[in-house]
Write a structure and sequence with these properties.
Distance between the termini: 19 Å
Shape: globular
Number of strands: 0
Order of helices and strands: HH
């Protein structure tokens, strides 16, 4: 799976379905891991992906990081 993420200069109105859950990094992780929702599986994240809001939202979806 490939997910293209644009920086701060991205045109407005082009956001992920999950961006409203806590920001762009949270939206990216939720989008990429939607296949794992409800499985109770663990994923290992690099320090660049360890955003508290994202970890909380993943736990709500049944994925642990």
């Amino acid at each position: 799976m490939i997910e293209i993420v644009e920086g701060k200069d991205a045109p407005s109105g082009q956001t992920s379905d999950f961006d409203d859950k806590g920001g762009r990094m949270t939206g990216l992780l939720l989008c990429m891991l939607r296949g794992y929702f409800g499985t109770g599986k663990y994923v290992i994240l690099d320090s660049g992906f360890c955003v508290l809001n994202a970890l909380i939202e993943l736990k709500k979806m049944g994925v642990f990081a």
